[in-house]
Amino acid sequence: MFLPILCVFSLILSSHAAVQDFCVGDLAAPEGPAGYSCKKPANVTVDDFVFSGLGTAGNTSNLIKAAVTPAFASQFPGLNGLGLSIARLDLAVGGVVPMHTHPGGSEVLLVTQGSICAGFISSANTVYYKTLKKGDIMIFPQGLLHFQLNGGGIPSIAFVSFSSPQPGLQILDYALFGNDLPTELVVGTTFLDKAQVKKLKAVLGGTN
């Protein structure tokens, strides 16, 4: 009777001993699929667990009139390996974050100023969207196309949390028109005409 209990107790102790409290990312080392390697504990300081960059508005003087200020593992090494991160989203009047995906994590958006029309498209092509007011929260499941745009006449602010320290980002418009994919291939895969594709490539920095 006592032997099985002793074995279970030993397993609990050994598994607890193997668990690390944290793995602060060593940003000087290469990042791998599992994240950054860990800093030596002797080199870890409290500043690795504090990020002060979300109190300042991002620069929205750009094509989409939007700015995302990330606090991901590459900016906030204390997040490394913890399975979460956060960012600030600023949308000027008329600002938009075009259709995009985060292949590495799901997203929770909290509006803190103004209003934001936000939505996502399921893999069955069902659309879920709503205009969010201050204090509203919306979720965007991992990997699904989604968008946010300013829903009113004042600048909007939101804070976005992710279920990954490096959620990744792919913006559909730039994926199609912001690279050197030949125009003929874009035409063939989007049903747009050649003139439209060339115009969008010119706007978004694509070639060919």
Automatic annotation (TrEMBL):
Per the UniProt entry, the signal peptide is: 1-17
Q: Which residues cross the membrane?
A: none
Q: Which SUPFAM superfamilies match?
A: RmlC-like cupins
- InterPro entries, A to Z: Cupin_1, Germin, Germin_Mn-BS, RmlC-like_jellyroll, RmlC_Cupin_sf
Alphabetized GO MF terms: manganese ion binding
Quick check: keyword Disulfide bond in the entry? Answer: yes
Coiled coil residues, start to end:
none
Protein's UniProt name: Germin-like protein
Give the organism the record lists. Answer: Vitis rotundifolia (Muscadine grape)
